[in-house]
Amino acid sequence: MEEITNVMEYEEIARRKLPKMVFDYYASGAEDQWTLKENRYAFSRILFRPRILIDVSKIDTTTSVLGFKISMPIMIAPTAMQKMAHPEGEYATARAASAAGTIMTLSSWATSSVEEVASTGPGIRFFQLYMCKDRNVVAQLVRRAERAGFKAIALTVDTPRLGRREADIKNRFTLPPFLTLKNFEGLDLGKMDKADDSGLASYVAGQIDRTLSWKDVKWLQTITSLPILVKGVLTAEDARLAIQNGAAGIIVSNHGARQLDYVPATIMALEEVVKAAQGRVPVFLDGGVRRGTDVFKALALGASGIFIGRPVVFSLAAEGEAGIRKVLQMLRDEFELTMALNGCRSLREITRNHIVTDWDLPR
Ligand code: FNR
């Protein structure tokens, strides 16, 4: 096989390897998929203003997130049901993240439990939470994550209902019967029934609490001492509310363009949120990050780090743990090179002046 030289190449390999229902679930966005394209395209409207003749013989990509030291500002976003991609699923992701010295976020809808992921060995891990209607289930799950050594809760706030993903409707998407949503094993939330449309959409309609509001963010703080990241913020207004309601950090995310179509690319929403946060909490970004240059651009606009979603499931499908390791390595190498060519030796040296966006320019 020809050598893989960038993260995006894994998508085509995954397409060839996976059943259509699975690939489409991983790849799709909502409705017209305008935001899906925009998440990528918006990065191309940001250009560099590199500084020259700076000694870049030593580059330090390390950073710290919520007090945890990691090798680079590139982390793994929660993506559901990874055993559909590869039999090792979330185990492979956990090991690859740990080997790269970075953070993995485990989805509530993982096909491996919090305990199983913890059993893969040491590593810094966050747990992504979907708020179920039954708060006892939520409280139990959060306690299990805490006991299993997870370091933060990423509360997903953009999914009171599932976005309309038409491929999943056409394919009658459902979790294959040999897999379970392991965090809910034994409860009637562990299996996904086949539905007339998307099995996941029906699952969400049945199990996920549409009443979720800021008071629940407060409630969550009464049941756990873990820091809470609010995942799915796209406006300054909500950034301020998140901080007022006790968030330890904000993730600017449009759920990989799978929820509301025609929201802006996350990289375009980032700066507004960063300004509203005023440095009180760290702001992270996910959505469309495929290159080290994208990582640099996000940091220049004020992000403390980024998360990747699809590159993980596609590389997992293609090559298992080795694939994810390669993705993390390629992004890290590209990011380091981007830093060097911009004249930045540490993350602290990356500034807003290193980029110009087309929305900065006079119209
Ligand atoms: C997701 N995402 C997601 N988010 C979440 O909070 N809980 C979840 O279970 C999932 N599951 C999931 C599955 C798949 C297949 C995808 C593609 C995405 C959203 C995810 O955390 C992240 O926001 C996006 O994936 C980031 O965009 P990119 O990197 O995929 O472009």
From TrEMBL:
Cofactor(s) annotated in UniProt: FMN
InterPro entries: Aldolase_TIM (IPR013785), Alpha-hydoxy_acid_DH_FMN (IPR012133), FMN-dep_DH (IPR000262), FMN_HAD (IPR037396), FMN_hydac_DH_AS (IPR008259)
Sequence ranges assigned to domain FMN hydroxy acid dehydrogenase in this UniProt record: 1-360
EC numbers: 1.1.3.15
Keywords: Oxidoreductase, Peroxisome
Location within or outside the cell: Peroxisome
Enzyme class, UniProt record, top EC level: oxidoreductase
Cited Pfam families: FMN_dh
Family affiliation: Belongs to the FMN-dependent alpha-hydroxy acid dehydrogenase family.
Protein name per the record: (S)-2-hydroxy-acid oxidase
Lineage, uppermost ranks: Eukaryota, Viridiplantae, Streptophyta, Embryophyta, Tracheophyta
